[in-house]
Amino acid sequence: MAPGTVLSMDRAALLPSLSVAAVRYWPAGCIRPLFESAGCDRAPRAQKPFPVAPRAQVEMIRASIKVRKVSASVWEQEFLEELKHYVGFTEAHAQVLADLRPSVESAFGGIVERFYDAIQQNPKALSVFKGGAPQIERQKAFLRAWLEGVVSGVYDVEYLLLRAKIGRTHVRIQLDQRYVLGAMNIVREGLHTAVDASSFALERRELSHQALDKICDLELAIMLQTYSEDYTTRIRDSERLATLGQLAGFVGHELRNPLAVMETSLHLLKKRIPVGDSNVERHTQRLGEQLAVCTGIISDLLDLARDRPLATTPVALGPLLCSVIEEVPLRDTCEIAIDVDTTLPEAKVDAKQLRHLIANLVTNAIQALAQQTPE
């Protein structure tokens, strides 16, 4: 039975128990497709919480997760089948590769050594291996296992997930795509050489070459897809940051006018305060200080929106640290000890940004301490 049919049956069978639980625990965008695919006119509306035994709730959630996992498996199966169709990889090719394995396994060791010899001759590719020689030795074992998978004859969803995991590892360690392409060429040549050295008849040898080319193309397509996923994610993150910058600029401009009015009003109030009223003077001073803080935050928001470059100047770190600590409000039970080497040379930094960084770190530490200790 086709995977899609199984999914429809599973969904339809689960709908009676999911009609309410899914609405409560799933995002709205996931609900409608579930019910429409099962033949329902519409998804049920979200309802108020109802008394359900905890065990029953757990079972409902597990059932909903099962449907989502089945949906993911179906998508992965469709993706794999699309790739196979695109490169022309068939079950006949899979059988040829499975029959080929005993004849090429002896060549795996040489392919692995040539693979890592090429890496060691390229400083940029070698720089990815932070663990040095021990890490490379471990990777050799992984490469041999990967070669065994190339001629395993089994190319299902589990195979796809394993290959995608390898590709995402390449992305995570920032291995450039050009090295993936070059490395695949080394593997391809090694396998073809092993086939040429076999005792196969000419016709079988040609079929083996064809199957090897197609499975290498399939492997490469899966790995490059993971780079495409990473690129899409980075583009999406860039768009979010751009939107955040626009929002920061909007908020900064909108808040400046009210703050300007408050500063003007405070200035007028100070002129009307009776001389010698220290209590009122203390409060107006605090208002002025906090307005200055708000103005600084708005300036920072606008700088974020404009992507202002760092204004670096030589700064003595000790005095800067002391002045920041003096400005941070402390609890009565909190004490900060400053121990700075006075012989430290001046550092070329953005003093304003560094002040904010230190102040935020100290404030976070004070707040964390307040949560751990009673007043």
Supply the key terms.
2% strand, 375 residues, disordered N terminus, two-stranded antiparallel sheet, single chain, elongated, 2 strands, mainly alpha
Polypeptide structure, described:
The protein is mostly helical. It has 13 helices and two strands; from the N terminus they run αααααααααααβαβα. It has helices spanning 3-25, 28-37, 54-87, 91-104, 108-120, 123-126, 132-150, 157-172, 177-196, 202-272, 278-306, 317-327, 351-372, and strands spanning 313-315, 347-349. The chain has a two-stranded antiparallel sheet with strand order 1-2. The longest helix has 71 residues, at 202-272. It is elongated, with a radius of gyration of 32 Å.
Question: Which regions are unreliable across 5 or more consecutive residues at pLDDT < 50?
Answer: 1-54
For the largest beta-sheet, the strand count, sense and barrel status come to:
2 strands, antiparallel
The SS-based structural class is: mainly alpha
Order of helices and strands: HHHHHHHHHHHEHEH
Mean pLDDT: 77
Total of DSSP H or I helical runs spanning 4+ residues = 13
Biggest β-sheet: strands ordered side by side in the sheet: 1-2
Rg, please? 32 Å
- Say how many strands there are: 2
Global geometry? elongated
Taking the alpha carbons of the first and last residues, their distance comes to 67 Å
- Report the helical percentage: over 70%
Instruction: Name the beta content range.
Output: under 5%
